[in-house]
Amino acid sequence: MDKSVKWPSEKYTIADHAHVHAIGQISLIFNLLEDAFCGLFELIFPAGDHYSEHIAAELSNRERVDMLKALVEHSENDPALSALLLDAVRFYDICTDNRNIIMHSMARDSSSEVIRLYKKANRSKKTNHYELPISELRAVADEMAAIYIFFVRLYSWILRRNDGETMDGALPSKPAQPRSLIPSRPGEAPATE
Questions:
Q1: Given a cut of 60, is residue 149 above it in pLDDT?
Q2: CA nearest neighbour of 29 among 176, 141, 154
Q3: How confident is the model at residue 114 (pLDDT cuts 50, 70, 90)?
Q4: Taking the CB of residue 118, how many other CB atoms lie within 10 A of it?
Q5: C-alpha distances in Å from residue 10, one per residue of 16, 18, 45, 113, 133
Q6: Which of 3, 12, 19, 181 has a CA-to-CA distance to 70 between 20 and 30 Å?
Q7: Cβ–Cβ contacts within 10 Å for residue 33, how many?
Q8: Can you tell me the distance from the alpha carbon of 158 to that of 68, in angstroms, rounded to the nearest whole number?
Q9: Are 26 and 141 in contact (CB under 8 A)?
Q10: Are 119 and 106 in contact (CB under 8 A)?
């Protein structure tokens, strides 16, 4: 591609490059996070690898979250690991909601400071509005990346335990809870205030 040609052309530009870049990062990191969540689900689900993978693929995101939560609550004997897994499930749920808001919204307008998104609320005629500064989108992406790394470490710890390795009790450290995007009225404060 000729680097002197600006892409996308101005008539097709929906938002400034920084916001589009951050939204792309959110999309890509969430796909990694979702894959790690499914891996954790398959590791904890009490069936063979092939069947666990099949179940994870057939369930919706909501069903996987609810089932993993139930499995942990009813099957995990280590209270510290159980609490950590329930936090992991809750963090993933928040990341999923944030991803769905961002990826299923339409841009109303944007500037170099803020992108204004709107999204119809599920099962209602209400439209939610979000005003997201670039710093907020980048923070959402960074939080998803931190949760992804946490999932990888948690998966590794559980796998080693399941393989019979004597664990020293040091569970992976938990990152901060990700923020939840909250609708605002058009023209009001950013979506996290």
A1: yes
A2: 141
A3: confident
A4: 14
A5: 10, 15, 49, 18, 21
A6: 181
A7: 24
A8: 14
A9: yes
A10: yes
Please give the model's pTM, rounded to 2 decimal places.
0.87
C-beta separation of 91 from 40 below 8 A: no
Q: What is the DSSP string of the chain?
A: --TTS-SS-GGG--S-HHHHHHHHHHHHHHHHHHHHHHHHHHHHSSS-HHHHHHHHHHS-HHHHHHHHHHHHHHH---HHHHHHHHHHHHHHHHHHHHHHHHHT-EEEEE-SSEEEEEEEPTTSS-EEEEEEEHHHHHHHHHHHHHHHHHHHHHHHHHHHHHTTPPP-S-PPPPPPPPPPP--B-TTSS-TT-
CB 28 within 8 A of CB 36: no
Burial label for 121, CB within 10 Å (0-12, 13-18, 19+), is exposed
pLDDT tens-digit series, residues 23-58? 999 999 999 999 999 999 999 988 877 888 888 889
